[in-house]
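Below is the data:
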Amino acid sequence: MCADYNTTADMEEQACGALRCLSANHAENQTRIGEAGGVNLVLAAMRAYQRSATVQEQACGALCCLSTNHAANQTRIGEAGGVDAVLTAMRAHDTSNGGVQVKACAALRSLAANHAANQTRIGEAGGVNLVLSAMCAHDTNMGVQEQACGALCCLSANHAANQTSIGEAGGVTLVLRAMRAHDTSAGVQEQGCGALESLCEFHAENQTRVIESGGVALVLAAMRTHKTNATVQEHACGALRSLCVNLAANQTRIGEAGGVDAVLAAMRTHGTSRGVLEKACAALCCFAANHAANKSRIGEVGGVDVVLWAMRAHDTSSGVQEQACAALCCLSANHAENQTRIGEAGGVDAVLRGMCAHDTSAGVQEQACGALCCFSTNHAANQTRIGEAGGVTLVLSAMRAHDTSSGVQEKACAALCCFAANHAANKSRIGEAGGVDVVLSAMRAHKTNASVQKQACGALQRMCVNHAANKTRIVEVDGIDLVLLAAVRAHERWHA
């Protein structure tokens, strides 16, 4: 019996290993194996040979490779009980075998990546505690720490319940401990920063936990130690961004600790990496949002030029264009020096080129309109630059092309308001290009959206001040009725 068991277990181990190798980085084989019933065979082996560490290790490895970037297999494995099988393996081989823990954490990472149902399954089945237990039991094992951090990253990405459970169970502390203990491991630093990014995304308690435990210093240390590693830099920029969203104290800490210089250094060193530039621009945006000191820091050390260089170098990347426009918006909002820097460095043309190149991207159009709004607020030179470079036409084109996007309509109306303020030439440009009709169309299409209504009313106000033709056009197309309706709805909301 024992000999038969061992012989059969060895066969299952080899079969799982073969499936792992066949499916690794090969989408067609992932599909073939999934459709041919391979998932169920792997899970059957795991259930039949729970005592065999080698079977469990190879099977977890197979599940990892089968599900990596493959939504259909993620779903197959989740619905077939694969999560429970992996967690059972972790419990059965918790302290005795680091190999099982490495492969199991890797499997959980792949199963949870961008898959909400599996994130929930893993969280509700106790997966968080098992991953953290693995980190505690194998604290000197770099492989376990790397894959565990990766699992925590994927489990918590856009999943509030898992963010909370990981934070409350001490996950932040363990991630930071792993980063301290394995500071020379690029893999641990990359996944550790990725975990911090996901854990802190719009989660104030985790942001505070990371800050109070010295997380900023660890992220910056990772960037210095692994400055030539693009993936470390990308995830570190993402972590810094998540740490300071909607938290002024963290913006200050990161700014004073050298975060601005670290992010700009990453952009300069990894200028060919779209991933780094996208995350870095997003980080600069969050550093600068409503934070005057960081706006000044970034402007004074050449941040504007670096962002504009990124836009020019990656003009075909909608992600870089969107995040760069967002960064320029935050840098220039209520900051005259940065408005001037951006205008004189060609920022208006860079943004308008981005709008032309990515006219079908609502994200680029929204952020670009926001940037143009901030450039031109109380800044006559930029108002003129935008008007003469065709900015009015492009903003109106964005509104027509993305008429169902409330974000585009809101930011575009705000931009038109800023273009027209005390600027006769831009008022005429807007009127002659059909701007009145486009703004009123936005009000009709988004009549229940208070933000669109507010910005549209502001645009109409600025367009018609001391401009008879625009006043006449607003009356002719029933603009007064729309403004009155917006006012009535605002009154009702206030008194609701």
Observations:
- Residues 9-134 form a domain with the Leucine-rich Repeat Variant fold (CATH 1.25.10.10).
- The mean pLDDT is 96.
